[in-house]
Amino acid sequence: MSKKLFIETLGCAMNVRDSEHMIAELNAHEGYELTEDASSADLILINTCSVREKPVHKLFSELGVFNKLKKADAKIGVCGCTASHLGKEIIKRAPYVSFVLGARNVSKIADVLHRDKAVEIEIDYDESQFAFKDFRSSPYKAYINISIGCDKQCTFCIVPKTRGDEISIPADLIVAEARKAVENGAKEVFLLGQNVNNYGRRFSGENEKINFTELLRRVSAIEGLERIRFTSPHPLHMDDEFIEEFARNPKICKSMHMPLQSGSNEILKSMKRGYTKEWFLNRAAKLRSLVPDVSISTDIIVAFPGESDADFEDTLDVMKQVRFEQVFSFKYSPRPLTEAEGFTNSVDSEVGSHRLSALQAYQDTILDSISAAMLGKEVEVYFEELRSDGYVAGRSDNNAVVKVKGSEEWLGRIARVKITEVSRSVQYGEIVA
Ligand code: 5AD
Ligand code: SF4
């Protein structure tokens, strides 16, 4: 009987891709098969996120639960960003953990597996990270790394410490991976990196140096590929050439993630984001004018150290002007190894919670009017998921989740759907063609 692997993936799309890679490595070298039942697994992996403090706390309680329910001889491994930043501390606090494998070291999974109490967390550049193995959690869309690490110095963010320096993956490898995914049936590729539109900043060798816009052109030339998405672009690098290619290229899905973080120039400076409120508004306006149907999503942090009521009002003002289709909002969480951890002008926690709920309530009013306007519209949906309630679900070109009554025959197909019922998070419709 084959050995069983249970894997839990937290955090971002980069982690999802890292998990796919570990699943493929363990299958190829060790014959592991996936299971959804942790208690029957021979190996339990948690692929962690460290961007905020809460999930880190949760990790240790979860580890305790897994330790109780696991088979006697099963191993538990902690991987990903929290593994990178806590390292051997994890084994100190949870001695039953067999190994710790950092976000930049996932290619070593089949190796650490056999080294009890191994801790592999270097963030040096390692070329084996480039060629990811061929396991896809969805046959319909392929996550593809285009760069690893991050060179920015946002003062709130731990990621450069967990994922290391930013290195772009050679364009020919990316195009070859995308082509292979399309040959295997995917109609959509999702290009991944911490700052995708900074692509080309640094390569490891003598590779052809191209920028993100040129990479998009090359990927879009792949025959049979119908949709390109990417995450995350950085507002600072949204130059005209990039926005114009985004607007012009029919294969690029019309949804853009623009992480604002704050609308206040003072706070943006203290976060070291490199752009101003005015630049951000200018870029969003250019996008909306060239792509009327674009949906823009964002990340916002409230209660960053020093944030006054007036700073917070600036953030609400950007929300009012841009009218984001989706907002991921967070209360600032001080992180080790970051510059802002040492800032002393912290905002009272209650004030932070209050601002977070005010912001979310404001966004709900915007969302209500955005979704009401979708009623009766026709959108192109790529169906990817069969739901147990008799619906198939997919995403519209501009990233709305759309459900229609139907069966698996629709999976992997793109169809025109008329929206007949709307809510803040899901739209319902009928297939028209
Ligand atoms: N506190 C709160 N939110 C954070 N993020 C990153 N670091 C922190 C932090 N220290 C948010 C940012 C980022 C998203 C992935 O997580 O908004 O864009
Ligand atoms: Fe992804 Fe950042 Fe979380 Fe690491 S810390 S998993 S890069 S969101």
Overview of this protein structure:
The structure is a single chain. It is built from 13 helices and 19 strands. The chain starts with a strand and ends with a strand. It has three domains: 3-120, 3-Layer(aba) Sandwich (Rossmann fold), CATH 3.40.50.12160; 141-374, tm_1862 like domain (pyruvate-formate lyase- activating enzyme); 378-431, Nucleic acid-binding proteins (OB fold (Dihydrolipoamide Acetyltransferase, E2P)). The protein is globular. The protein is an alpha/beta fold and 433 residues long. It has a six-stranded parallel β-sheet, with helices on both faces. A five-stranded mixed barrel has the order 15-16-17-19-18. The protein has a three-stranded parallel β-sheet with strand order 7-10-11, sandwiched between helices. Iron/sulfur cluster binds at residues 11-12, 14-15, 49-51, 80-81, 103, 159, 162-163. 5'-deoxyadenosine binds at residues 51-52, 156-157, 259, 261, 299, 301, 330, 332-333, 335.
Give the gist of this structure.
The chain is of the alpha/beta class. The protein contains 13 helices and 19 strands.
